[in-house]
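Service request form, structural biology core

Requester: graduate student, group of Dr. S.
Request type: structure prediction, single chain
Budget code: on file
Notes: please return the result as structure tokens.

Sequence provided:
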Amino acid sequence: MILLFLLVYALAGWKFGNWKEFHSFYPTLLFFIIGDLLSQFLLFDYSMWEFQPADPLAHYLKLNHTFIALLKMIIQYTATVAIFIGRLPDTFTKTVLWVLFWTFIFGITEGLSHYAGIMTYHNGWHFGWDIAFNLMMFTMLIIHHKRPLLAWAASLPVIIGLWIIFDVPYSVLK
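Core staff response, request fulfilled:
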């Protein structure tokens, strides 16, 4: 099922992505991927969520958490940024609706992934946190696209806040 989700994202990205302007939002894609890689690294032994194969094809391909997370970064995040930033509205109201729309899309994908057993929650994380995080994440992607240094600066309190809220022990760091 995860491969089906990734195929849908790839097709949507191909159809709706603004590839002519991709060079202008490529740094935002890297910001997105670096954020996920950082969370994967810092929370290696204290995951908030974990991916696992949930269908015969994923089992056959031996898709574990790491492979699924990397495939999501390469396919889903690239398609998302090409569409989300590539078609960013120019008014505040439309931008808010755009963020809500993409939060809904990611919420559906993540909710179905959880329901299908592809994604499990751990250490206090749950679907409500997914939604709140996605609202923050899409807002942060817009900020990064317009003012990268501000987004990097704003990310630090978010990371620290989540670290405190989820009582991540320092012992998980190597």
